[in-house]
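Q: What structure does this chain adopt?
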Amino acid sequence: MVAGWFTGEGDGFRLLGTRCAACRSVFFPREDAYCRNPGCSGGDLEEVPLSRRGRVWSYTDSRYRPPSPYVTDPELPWEPYALMAVELESERIVVLGQAVPGITVADLTVGMEVEVVPGVLDEDMGTTWTTWWWRPTGVAG
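A:
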């Protein structure tokens, strides 16, 4: 888990971004030092929960084992997974993330509605590394 990137559980799960008080630009991953908008002279940055739902902007699949720091057991066969770029309409940003397990590129279309849900990246001897996943709306999880 990356501290400060998301919060909550179940239906209360949300990605956390930051918004500039001066230009109202929203950032994810969060920005705590300065406004990244080159047209802004800067303002205070406040933490904001992002929309739970968005629309698929683009997608692809990961057919190879990524390098470190991605956590994976080299002894196990590689399982491909789908990656989605999801546009959050109210924030006007695109957020990249994995699809929930079981969803493949064959299940996705540009423009379909998805929602953010908590996911488990890895578990090891009492430690759970959490992340976020995108799930098409209407799919049980």
